[in-house]
Amino acid sequence: MMKQKRKICGVGFLLALSMLCSVQAQATAIRDRLDSTGKKIHELEDALDRNDQNLSAYEKERNELEQEVALGQEKIRRMSEQLDDTKSAITDTQEEIVRTQEELEQAQADSKKQYVRMRRRIRFMYENSTTDMILYVLDAGSMPEALRRANYFQAVLSYDREKMEQYQETTRKIKKDKAKLVSEKEQLETLEIKQTEQLAGIDTAVADLKKKLSGKIAQIQSSKALQAKYEQDLERQKRYEQELERQKAEEDRKREEEIRQQEEELKRRQQEQSGSSDSGTSVGRTVAASAGDLELLSTIIYCEAGNQSYEGQLAVGSVILNRVASSSFPNSISGVIYQSGQFSPVASGRFAHALASGLGSRCEAAAREVLNGRRNVDCLYFRANNGGIDGLVIGDHVFY
């Protein structure tokens, strides 16, 4: 009868163990999906950060291009005004050349007329002979009249000579002024060509800047669209992660119940086999701390709760040691930490990086206190607190 009872108990234990394995497999699958989702979230956050950096750079480049375009347009405005002034000066100079040419032609005509008149007077004097001119002077009734008549002939000759010299000087001056105006016009025309070329160059440069600006605006619009897509994908992945967290918490509770039943079954079988009804027999395992256990424990506490309160760090360490003490988890700190599908920092590689960098020293006090026997929670699990999991909330985590 006793053997049959023990056989039934053995079968029950195997069934419980089978159920536990099934729950564990399901929990591992959820853990895998959580890790995959967490990786996607991390990638999306990195992509968002990169896109934000690119967008900031694009915005800065766009502002710089807009300033360059504005400066270029201002140069075009000033150069256009200068070119207009040059063209106006050319027109004014050309008009002045025309007026000078007219003055030159008038002066030459006047000089020609004066020359004709002078020739007529000289011919008259010669044709009427010098004797006649002398008699004309001597026939004067008085000396003053004689002097006046003599001075008249001299004045006529002086007037003609002075007029000729005056017309010649006027003609030389007008020609000189005309030559100067022609030179100024040539210089202005050369300046007009230069200014036209400069204006064309500035126009081309501004057109290129506008083209670049249009391309940069297109990049900004594309980056904003990509940013919106990343944000939507990130929000969707976070909602999915929260649902997985909820499912994982439910599976953890089921597994915790199976663990409790298994440990009670083990305790009962031990009592039957020993024939003792001592209810104080412990099924937990003692912690055999090695030289590296403190470093491992402090590092996992840092990765999971480095930004939390001291109580939160103690709680994470307590969960690790509670698992070590449980018969359903590995019986060493390293075994618990490296157990497949349990801690996301281990799966992502962040734990290995923190361990190599010695970052765990920041949480060494909490790890040392837990190793010395302090436990502030009796839970086997903890998750990020998203409001959808029941349990003991400490900081950003919920323990259950």
Automatic annotation (TrEMBL):
Q: Which GO terms describe its molecular function?
A: hydrolase activity
- In this protein, which residues make up the domain named Cell wall hydrolase SleB? 308-400
Q: Which UniProt keywords apply?
A: Coiled coil, Signal
Q: Which InterPro entries match?
A: Cell_wall_hydrolase_SleB, SleB_dom1
Q: What taxonomic ancestry is recorded?
A: Bacteria, Bacillati, Bacillota, Clostridia, Eubacteriales
- Region (Disordered) residue spans: 243-284
Could you tell me which Gene3D superfamilies the record lists for this protein? 6.10.250.3150, Cell wall hydrolase SleB, domain 1
Return the protein name. Cell wall hydrolase SleB domain-containing protein
One Pfam family name is Hydrolase_2
Q: From the record, what ranges are coiled-coil?
A: 41-121, 164-194
